[in-house]
């Protein structure tokens, strides 16, 4: 719960696994038969994985712990944070990639993703855990590699060469390997979602979770990159667009019973809007349509406001400089999926209005944003917080502790 809340709310983690001793869950049959069992910890869990002996829960928690380390690097500033604090040539993302690969290689064939394996775990009432284990592993693969995706300064913002363009981290084979791993992981996330949704109602219901939603957002971001940036395969953009639409359709199906799904839908729409504003040609109909689809937060009822008063999100020590790297804007949009919509829309405005001298934007797009962002500020990402700030956020920058 601590890790999920930290990522969902863009706040610091409060439990350090190095400072606590927690045993992992026992297999369910141990409780049923009341047999003695010595439970392992994160450091003593044996590998290769033994699902028949320990069940899936310990391995899911281990996967979630690896995921939480990757997401915390995102919260602290991504690869910029890694380059700032790394004392060796091997960065934190590289270490997590190695650990993730070792974890995947330790899983026997019975724990690898496949339709027969998913059905087999259904018989022991662990189908949902099996699905979420693989979504978590694939989501981690997306996170540790997605900032290596190249974002060339092309399209309508080409005149901002060096400002919007994201310097690729790593060169040659290393970068190619990261891009391939990221694209493969995002595609497999969508494949798992589609298989579970198309199988039966029981599998579909297993998907409705925060873990699934985070994986869907990561996959959507990478697929949007394929659609708008990658140009090697002529058919890749069409396939990527179809995958994004399948994610949107699943989140749409959750809205009636899970209102937070609307915030995640808006996140995907904002991500798409950023890519469109940066790389796609101007189209008054399509661009405006995507922007208008971003819903404003629902009005809070008076009774609810009295029962549960919530401070309105404000900006901290100054407005940010939106001549940042696109990857930073994308990371901000993903991390702020539950934040105030007005604050999130400010990220889009400069991307839309930069280059006004080259392209005349439709008035409907410009009027959508009420806020003027001065160009004199040189802060990083927005310092967004409620009334209780924390030391990690200062002047709009993310500062890391001594160690992650």
Automatic annotation (TrEMBL):
Keywords: Metal-binding, Nucleus, Transcription, Transcription regulation. One of its GO terms (molecular function) is metal ion binding. It is found in: Nucleus. GO terms for cellular component: nucleus. Signal peptide: none annotated. Residues 154-178, 286-305 are annotated as: Disordered. The keyword DNA-binding does not apply. The keyword Transcription applies. Residues 294-303 have a biased composition (Low complexity). This is Transcription factor domain-containing protein.
């Amino acid at each position: 719960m601590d890790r999920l809340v930290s990522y969902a709310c863009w706040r610091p983690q409060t439990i350090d696994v190095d400072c606590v001793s927690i045993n992992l869950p026992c297999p369910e049959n141990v409780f049923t038969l009341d047999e003695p069992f010595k439970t392992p910890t994160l450091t003593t869990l044996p590998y290769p994985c033994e699902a028949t002996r320990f069940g899936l829960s310990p391995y899911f928690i281990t996967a979630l712990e690896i995921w939480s380390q990757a997401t915390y690097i995102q919260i602290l500033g991504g690869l910029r944070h890694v380059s700032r604090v790394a004392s060796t040539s091997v960065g934190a993302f590289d270490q997590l990639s190695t650990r993730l690969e070792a974890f995947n290689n330790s899983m026997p064939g019975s724990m690898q993703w496949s339709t027969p394996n998913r059905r087999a775990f259904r018989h022991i009432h662990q189908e949902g855990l099996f699905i979420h284990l693989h979504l978590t592993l694939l989501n981690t693969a997306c996170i540790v590699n997605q900032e290596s995706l190249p974002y060339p300064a092309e399209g309508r913002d080409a005149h901002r060469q060096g400002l919007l363009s994201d310097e690729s981290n790593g060169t040659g084979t290393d970068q190619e390997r990261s891009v391939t791993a990221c694209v493969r992981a995002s595609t497999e996330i969508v494949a798992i979602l589609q298989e579970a949704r198309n199988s039966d109602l029981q599998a579909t219901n297993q998907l409705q979770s925060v873990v699934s939603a985070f994986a869907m957002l990561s996959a959507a971001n990478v697929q949007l990159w394929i659609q708008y940036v990658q140009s090697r395969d002529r058919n890749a953009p069409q396939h990527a667009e179809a995958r994004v639409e399948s994610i949107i359709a699943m989140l749409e199906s959750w809205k009636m019973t899970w209102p937070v799904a609307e915030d995640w839908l808006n996140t995907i729409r904002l991500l798409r809007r950023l890519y469109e504003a940066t790389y796609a040609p101007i189209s008054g109909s399509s661009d405006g349509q995507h922007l208008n689809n971003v819903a404003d937060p629902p009005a809070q009822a008076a009774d609810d406001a009295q029962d549960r008063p919530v401070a309105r999100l404000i900006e901290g020590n100054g407005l940010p400089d939106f001549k940042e790297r696109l990857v930073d804007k994308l990371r901000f949009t993903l991390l702020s999926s539950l934040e105030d919509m007005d604050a999130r829309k400010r990220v889009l405005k400069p991307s839309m209005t930069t280059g006004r001298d080259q392209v005349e934007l439709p008035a409907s797009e410009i009027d959508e944003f009420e806020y003027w962002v001065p160009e004199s500020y040189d802060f990083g990402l927005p310092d967004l917080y409620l009334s209780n700030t924390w030391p990690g956020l200062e002047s709009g920058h993310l500062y890391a502790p001594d160690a992650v």
